[in-house]
């Protein structure tokens, strides 16, 4: 992409009501634009980051045999009323709206109910199960406050996977498979080292659910982890009774702030029973389908990555999610010509800063935008057939032979 | 994709309130699921069709230097109030909702206002123009009735492109470029032969806008075309005064029903002036930005294609939009083994009907689903080293050497 042809510019300041670091930096670097608190537009670079995160998740889920769908935002209240979740007392973050032809609709804050409702058309026999179905879909949550940038949105992108089984054993087995996939996903997204599978409240249908918590000073959650981080608890279940079950005591744990980037939950019959998602088993008996759900906050992950790796110069993207791998600057007549040559055929890998601007300005923007590698070709570097390659993460600069630049 | 592993099945009947042919066939063939009237979920095959249509549009727009973004559904009323379009009297298809923290929001039925509002951050000088920005985004329109399947949704997917210019000449020039791109897009989508650029009402800021109308008996529009279809008018502008301008008379035209699949519009200052999207020209004078907008109804296009090409056996997809190019059936022991072999490495091209079902059922499903080519390998075809290849569109069947099957 040529920066000279893009409408995106870095900004000196984010909008004045933007408080969160991720919101400020992503706005200043031209990734997002705030429509209203908790509601953002994704500009070309931001959309690429989102698509990269989706790509990693999609690959890992497809490898498990999961099927991708796209469900609606507008929601018929009926199935939600059957589970008791349409009530504003029960779920206090609904956006609701009126049909012109009469009747109230909701804007989906999650999709368990419509997913089950839809499957009633497709599941009738044990032969139809198990099923694993996911989507990337915009969710709407009417938060009273939204001050965390894209880490907590009123409108945000989520990956939600639902699994359906004939037995608790089969649910358990798939749940373990998803646990491994989630570890792999967060590893690939660059968050692996500081993201822990965390015991959290399981509600009334299971002792625990699991959250994936990424260490982050501004995270909304408090977690407790032991020395080797093999045992991590959300504050809500960190008590002596729970610890006793694991043969541990409070003294073994360290407190930290963290942001929830994913959660997985054995719902069992919680929603399938009131909605009547049944199947006939091989003895011709009608039984209720077991269900699990598995979320990853896609736009939140982008916010957490932005927040976590940023330094005083700006964003620092891991390669897997960066909108471009390289930021290219040509200096001087020869450098400019060579930069054009290098760019050709690599338009999807290179953010080419071909603007009529001073090198210092370009360098500052490359840092603010957080592109993993900056390539500078100047008359000077070219005199020895080389380019200057700088790593955004480490700041390390080296001269590299042009022939080995993209190897 | 293996059909045995998918939750999708063909259905004998669509939901009883589904009237439109596209809605009935797409539901029966397992492409979509109706949430409520005019609101649909896209199942794995349906999502693939949507992604294929998006892919064609994206390629053609990127080739023009257009940039892709993704804007929010939730809308701050302010910019819409500035153009007069937040009023339900002016725009009668709004879905509106309340913020928990107070204040009314709208669900975007289109995105001119937020796009302009966002660009006020990025455009200040003539050097920032022209710009071409598009998105694929869910739109919400509170239609009183929604009985046309996915051809007229309350929630639907649209591609909207907006262009911004310093002069009317530059707007005109880009408008012509988009006209050519649209022709190419509808050609590639298989609709070219029956899709005409049509003069339609231009509102108060331009004499005409252009619609892209696809001939369709159940289309909502009436158009009039001359013998070589070089001159086509929407009924709304088909009168003697307009025809006189083109040196034509009513007798030269044939009436037909059609469905609007795209529209392009020179908005000029219509929205940029009230919203104050200005730039400073090279004489340092402040001027208003010229604007154009260019829509394609992505989910509607899917509905129109479904509706237009279907026959009494089911859907018939053009290759460019089909979810899979081939539908594969193995019959008998050898045929089943060979089918597994053929499938391997072609999982993205082949819908493999590996279900435990009779060949006749598989053939009927392949026809209902509308996959362009059916491949059958049986012990009989294999005895001469061949497979049977059947075109869904023509019904033509031939025996093809296995070695030449995918050439």
Q: Describe it for me?
A:
The structure is a homodimer of 407-residue chains. Chain A has helices spanning 21-28, 44-63, 77-82, 112-119, 168-188, 240-245, 272-275, 298-309, 332-343, 359-369, 379-383, and strands spanning 32-36, 39-42, 67-68, 74-75, 95-98, 104-107, 131-140, 155-165, 195-201, 208-215, 221-225, 232-234, 254-268, 278-280, 286-288, 290-297, 326-331, 350-352, 373-378, 386-391, 397-401. In chain A, strand 5 and strand 6 (104-107) form a beta hairpin. In chain A, helix 1 (21-28) packs across helix 8 (298-309) and helix 2 (44-63) runs antiparallel to helix 5 (168-188). Chain A has 11 helices and 21 strands. Chain A is α+β, with helices and mostly antiparallel strands. In chain A, strands 3, 7, 8, 9, 10, 11, 12, 13 and 16 form a 9-stranded mixed β-sheet that branches. Chain A has a 5-stranded mixed β-sheet with strand order 18-17-19-20-21. The first copy, chain A, is 28% helix and 29% strand. Chains A and B meet through strand 1, strand 2, helix 2, strand 3 and strand 4 of A and strand 1, strand 2, helix 2, strand 3 and strand 4 of B.
